[in-house]
Design a protein that fits this description.
- The strands form six sheets. The chain has a five-stranded antiparallel sheet with strand order 3-2-1-16-15, with helices on both faces.
- It is built from twelve helices and 16 strands.
- It is an alpha+beta fold.
- The chain is globular, with a radius of gyration of 20 Å.
Length: 401
């Protein structure tokens, strides 16, 4: 089995100076078949990538937060149909823009309350600054995440919704809101909620919203590609060594390739891994089941026809038509599920092949017209967009899938 060919696109990017390094992993049928440790986690310090390198995983955080919420569903303390105003009164009496992209003062009332499922599927009407246009986009960009989550939520609640709750999917801060909901139900920080419900049971010892001082040297530096095709390390400062005031459930986690493999194996295994059950089979299946209507799939995702051959579960994309999906996004059998991150981190689990692939890099994107490519698991930088898809295709070819 010649898996080594899957490294070539990554090595080319490193050698050309547009990528510092990467850690990738191929797992199949209960075994790790390959781990690639390529390039450097810090180019200037000549620190090589290692299997235990810690990465900012951005939106790969979202399925973890949803899984923690589903443990509360399993306990009967939360339901997908619950209105979130039960715990988040700030989101009562929401208004909706009369026209997407239009003035913030031209609104009408929301027809119903936002539900827990709306948050998990990005159908709440909330947004990100890069997923909408006009005054609403500018208003979102002005809300600081460097404040207490209660203050952040209060500012968010003052803005109108992009559309009616449940109407369509708009990628959003909804999972950050879900994290605050979990904090209020449990009466503790999201770091503690996830540690007790996900990280501890699964043995994810290197995953959290901060990096312990002793592990700081293992963290990959965040790079950005400058206009002259050189890497700059000024994209982001060093990781926090204590939990931040606002643990963002939509994108704040640090993790390693092995920790995230355990999480992905848990979902692939129907809620359990290595004899440890975290979710009921029903909840794991719910996360992996397409919930979008045919009409909702007609709407582009960040300007891309993302839903061709794909659907969306509880913050997991799901392959519904492998032939159609492969033409745009690469191989993956029926039911293949994933959700990547904006810094180039990506993974997918393919039930039909009992296969998990993980690809971790640290490149700061430019969120704009290329946002969909970013969220799809590449960076928004053209010179890097083909690297991860080639890794995936060559892995499937080597495995004769």
């Amino acid at each position: 089995m010649q898996l080594d060919a899957n490294r070539s696109s990554i090595i080319e990017a490193i050698d050309s100076g547009v990528l510092a390094g990467a850690v990738t992993l191929v797992w199949r049928g209960g075994q790790v078949l390959q781990v690639n440790e390529l390039g450097h986690r810090d180019v200037e310090a000549r620190l090589p990538m290692r299997r235990d390198t810690i990465f900012r995983i951005a939106s790969m955080t979202k399925p973890v937060t949803v899984a923690a919420a589903m443990t509360l569903v399993d306990e009967g303390r939360l339901a997908l149909t619950d209105p979130v105003t039960r715990w988040l009164p700030e989101l009562a009496d929401m208004r909706v823009l009369d026209t997407p992209g239009g003035p913030l003062d031209r609104t009408h009332p929301a027809r119903r309350a936002i539900t827990v499922e709306d948050l998990m599927t990005h159908r709440s009407g909330l947004a990100y600054f890069f997923s909408v246009t006009g005054p609403l986009a500018r208003a979102y960009s002005r809300i600081s995440t460097r404040q207490h989550p209660d203050h952040w939520l209060a500012e968010l609640a003052e803005l109108p919704l992009e559309h009616q709750p449940g109407e369509r999917l708009t990628y959003s801060n909804a999972t950050d809101v879900l994290g605050i909901l979990l904090e209020r139900i449990e009466g503790k920080t999201l770091q503690d909620v996830l540690a007790e419900r996900i990280f501890g049971p699964l043995g994810m010892v290197d995953t959290g919203f901060y990096v312990a001082a002793a592990n700081r040297n293992r963290t990959a530096t965040m790079y950005r590609l400058t206009d002259d095709d050189t890497l700059s390390n000024d994209a982001m400062g060093p990781p926090a060594v204590t939990p931040p005031p606002f643990c963002m459930g939509g994108g704040g986690l640090f993790s390693t390739v092995d920790d995230y493999l355990t999480f992905a194996r848990m979902l692939l295994g129907g809620g359990a891994v290595d004899g440890v059950r975290v979710l009921s089979e029903e909840s794991a299946r719910a996360m992996r089941t397409d919930r979008l209507t045919a009409e909702q799939k007609q709407h582009p995702f960040l300007g891309m026809p993302f839903w061709l051959g794909r659907g969306f579960g509880l913050n997991l994309s799901v392959v519904t038509d492998p032939a159609q999906s492969q033409r745009l996004y690469g191989p993956g059998g029926p039911g293949t599920f994933s959700w990547p991150g904006a810094y180039g981190t990506w993974w997918q689990a393919d039930p039909s092949a009992d296969l998990i692939l993980i690809y971790l890099i640290q490149n700061f994107p430019t969120l704009g017209v290329d946002a969909a490519a970013t969220i799809a698991g590449n960076t928004s930088l053209l010179k890097l967009q083909s690297v991860q898809p080639k890794f995936v295709r060559r892995t499937y070819q080597a495995l004769d899938l």
